[in-house]
Design a protein that fits this description.
Length: 175
Amino acid sequence: MPYPLSKLAYGLRCRLRELATPREVYELQLAAPHLAGLQPIQKIVNIDDVVIFEFRNDGLRLSLHKKKYEYCNKTLFRLTHVLAFIYVMALTDLDVIHGQYLLDVSYIAFYHSHITLELIKKLAKSTNDNVGSIEFKKCRIDLDVTLDAITAMFGNIAICSPGSNVKIYRPKPEY
């Protein structure tokens, strides 16, 4: 059962804001814009650029095609153009992206990644309805990731391209 924010003591609302991710703060402020304790207003930086998230052993790398933005873990970024993922594996944690980025993109590409249905579900939850194209290049795609499943999660998708050199991942049967 949800707990009303207005019933939460002022000090606890302040602490909630400190502990929340930038996206959570933004959503709290949308729900209760004038409630004391949730200030200052969450800053949003719009990025109209090609944004690349690269997952390596040493962590997440973010790169931009055109210009540099000063990174701050308390800033919420709204991505409004192209989003690319490189080396995403089945166990990759996308919560880092979900907590700090609003994904208002129209095009998503995956390169050298392992595509699972759970990954697609998490991504669909983090994006809006503007995604019109998804492309997979040199990816392993689980059998349950079907065109029907992708179009069900991304309502306005027009193009879903498996790209070149796609390896379909067939899990070993369990006995």
